[in-house]
Amino acid sequence: MTEEIKQRIETIKAGKVPVGYKKTQFGVFPDDWVTDKTLGDIFLFYGGLGISREQLGSKGIAYLHYGDMHKGTFKKVAYEQYSLLPKYDIQLDGNETFLMKDGDVVFLDASEDLEGTSRSVLVDNPDNNFFIAGLHTTLGKSKDDFLDKWYKQYITTTDAVKKQFQELAVGFKVYGVNRKEITKIIIPCPRKKDEQNRIAEILSKWDRAIELQEKMIEKLELQKKALMQKLLTPKEGWKKVKLGELAFMQSGGTPKSTVEEYYNGNIIWVSINDISSCGKYLSNSERKITEKGLKNSSARLFPKGTILYAMYASIGKCCIATAECSTSQAILGIMTNEKLVSEYLYYFLLHHQERILAQGQKGTQSNLNKEMVQNIIVDLPETIDKQISLVKILNCFDRYIDSHIEKLATLKRQQKSIQQLLLTGIVRV
After folding, report:
1. What would the pLDDT profile of 42-80 be if each residue is shown by its tens digit?
2. DSSP 156-171
3. Are 141 and 101 spatial neighbours (Cβ–Cβ below 8 Å)?
4. Using one digit for the tens of pLDDT, what is the confidence trace for 180-193?
């Protein structure tokens, strides 16, 4: 970053306007940028085709469901996404307004969080393949060629634009943005298309780098799965032992949510959401309870090193506690004895998650319970040293994957920063 750009940033932070820039209600932008164009000036808006997930299948026309957008699965929709999208079997004549044409932009009109209310994807469809904008989406079709096609991919990514979407959102658990209201959102942007294109080219390189890193992580996860298959397949001398003979286990409990003094303490209280998002190790929780909450419920403290195992909802998800903690009743705390290394058990449960999940879904039973977990048959190497040796190999591979995950996180942080600088004109190209 040049000294000129650093000075420009410091000037804006100090509440002043740099030379060659102007102050608007949405922030500071270059004098020669357009700062009064609305989405309604740029696009004609149409509703998507409202089809439920249950009506979709594997045959027909590719259908962009709002759920796929909300998850951030796609930043653009092109032919390579055709096989990844669900299909809707319908006869079309090609004139329907919900068909996504090249250069169109699809906006969400419903989201489970405020961040998602501004999410949009560009349609890259020069061959005019049939793609349908689906449930809870709004399809924007350009009125003219004011915006560069590739620049459209980034028009809703700045803080200024996100804030406008969030201010228009209504709802509680699900947020909606009215189609008519979307037309009022202002999109500050370069007046010249060649500058729009240069910005898009730079940001697309970051997108590509992130995409390649994500694919690398996916490849490594597959390699890890194959490695676990090789290492954890029983060998000569191994024993099959019920988990209940190798560990003590107990479920947790939930203090009454209506009693305020039971919560906001300093005792880690692990929920299913915490397990689902923590990875291999867990050191903290979203909510914490007090000593009083612990004593007046079936919750109990589990020591550091306990395997935390999900019996409901995210069945079979597990992690290793790196600090003393309590859990909800949906989670089983498994404390191994001297015959079983806790990290070996973690990898064993991870490797056999699908099989255990199927066990928990037999008949009308949709969850696991303590007895079922106790009866899980563990393939046990002949010695503790062998368990430790296998764990070392898998730990080493996990650290390698973690290094790539951290690299991905760094790329995303860098992209977000440069994206904000380019799309506000603080950095000119």
Report:
1. 999 999 998 888 899 989 899 998 888 877 777 788 878
2. T-SHHHHHHHHHH-EE
3. yes
4. 899 999 999 999 99
| Alpha carbon 40 to chain centroid, angstroms | 30
Answer yes or no: is pLDDT of 421 > 90: yes
Taken in order of first residue, the domains within the chain and their CATH numbers are 32-191 (3.90.220.20), 192-231+383-429 (1.10.287.1120), 239-380 (3.90.220.20)
Tell me the β-bridge partners of 293: none
Token pair in block for residue 345: 């058990």
Cα–Cα distance between 399 and 305 in angstroms, integer? 18
CA dihedral 340, 345, 346, 352 (to 10 degrees): 180
User: Cβ distance 302 to 336 under 8 Å?
Assistant: no
pTM: 0.84
Please give the C-alpha separations between residue 95 and each of 40, 126, 128, 216, in angstroms, as whole numbers.
Answer: 22, 16, 12, 40
- 367-398 tens-digit pLDDT: 889 999 999 999 999 999 999 999 999 999 99
- Between CA 90 and CA 61 the distance in angstroms is 7
Handedness of CA 152, 156, 159, 165 (dihedral sign): positive
Give per-residue pLDDT as tens, 319-372.
999 999 999 999 999 999 999 999 999 999 999 988 877 765 554 456 889 999
Query: Are 240 and 380 a contacting pair, CB within 8 Å?
Result: yes
Tokens 């998850």 locate to 71
Which residues pair with residue 27 across a beta bridge?
Answer: 24
First-to-last CA distance in the chain?
13
Contacts of 228 (CB under 8 A, 6+ apart): 347, 350, 351, 394
Q: Are 173 and 367 in contact (CB under 8 A)?
A: no
As a whole number of angstroms, the distance between CA 232 and CA 222 comes to: 15
CA atoms within 13 A on the CB side of 370: 11
